[in-house]
Amino acid sequence: MNLSDLLGPVALADITAAIQERRLLHQPCGQGERLSSRFSWERFVSILNLQSTDMTGIRVFKDGRRVPLDWLTGRPAEVSIDGDAFKALAQQGISVVLNRIEHRAKEVHDLWREAREIFACPLQMAYFANFGPGYALNAHFDRDDIVIIQIAGRKEWEIIGEVVDVAPNRKPTRVDDDAVTRRFVMTPGDVLVLPYGLAHRCHTPEASLQLGMLVERPHGWDYFKRLVELAGSRPEFRRPAPVDRRDKAAVDRYDEELRQAVVALMDSYGPRQFLAEALRGSGNRTITLADLPPTVDLNADD
């Protein structure tokens, strides 16, 4: 199965345009049977069995809030997932997020390689599984653009407000129910493009399974963080400021030298080089070393 087969009647050009424009795109497609043999619950379970709780590619939520991973093992010091413990927890209604699954199954790996070439961005694959009725996660927004394909079951979506620019670790104010701007339901075969910075929450009336592609477009601050790392090795950035800030000539000279150093650094390592480096680096990551993309909880108190 290639990417076009996965997305059904939704054109890749339409998905790329929605990502570029940061525009929500929900396309009811039906034809869920095209996915049932490749990315079914059985495939999810096979990938789950390769996980352990000391990996950063797994998160579990109950009633919208994250729960300790030792709930999956039955014992605090254990890292292997216990089938009976997982079954008991699933019967209570939980949500499981498996990130960085692109190296866990050949079919998923092949899709990941194709998607990286098409989007020309760092990208990861994920499973979103919900057991039983309830809210999957509390209202939140994500830093990455996400392409979601509904594999099994139904998931009810609420879109909250408009797209915002997401700052690192930003915690917005509590969500008001009046802020819901759109509601829709995803059924097997449906495709969704969720732009980063668009707040949402989901309710599952039944067990639900989704496959996701997280398009990890680097942000401007990522580039500047990399510049700061590079600046640390350059002697011109280790020169202290003048002692007497009232010495106008000394301050002017320091100002000019530092500006020239910043321009020289950006000339030697521009955004194009940064983007190429980010794409190369994403192909070398493994699931045991990968960190999950940050998610901001809109219901946080601070």
Give me some keywords for this one.
single chain, 302 residues, alpha+beta, Jelly Rolls, 2 domains, 8-stranded antiparallel β-sheet, 4-stranded antiparallel β-sheet, 8 helices, 23% strand, disordered C terminus
Per the principal axes of the C-alpha atoms, what is the gross shape? Answer: elongated
CATH homologous group name of the largest domain:
Cupin
The first-level CATH class of the largest domain is given as Mainly Beta
Q: Which topology of the largest domain does CATH recognise?
A: Jelly Rolls
Distance between the termini: 45 Å
DSSP, total strands:
14
Quaternary form: single chain
Structural class by helix and strand composition: alpha+beta
CATH architecture classification of the largest domain: Sandwich
> What is the beta-strand fraction?
15-25%
Biggest sheet details: 8 strands, antiparallel
Give the SSE map.
Layout: H1 3-7, H2 12-21, E1 25-27, H3 41-48, E2 58-62, E3 65-66, H4 83-91, E4 95-99, H5 106-119, E5 123-130, E6 134-135, E7 140-142, E8 145-152, E9 155-160, E10 180-186, E11 191-194, E12 199-204, E13 208-215, H6 220-231, H7 248-268, H8 271-282, E14 295-297
Antiparallel strand pairs: 1-11, 2-3, 2-4, 4-5, 5-13, 6-12, 7-14, 8-11, 8-13, 9-10, 9-12
Task: Report on the architecture of this protein.
With 302 residues, the chain is an alpha+beta fold. It folds into 2 domains: 3-219, Jelly Rolls, CATH 2.60.120; 220-278. It has helices at 3-7, 12-21, 41-48, 83-91, 106-119, 220-231, 248-268, 271-282, and strands at 25-27, 58-62, 65-66, 95-99, 123-130, 134-135, 140-142, 145-152, 155-160, 180-186, 191-194, 199-204, 208-215, 295-297. The longest helix has 21 residues, at 248-268.
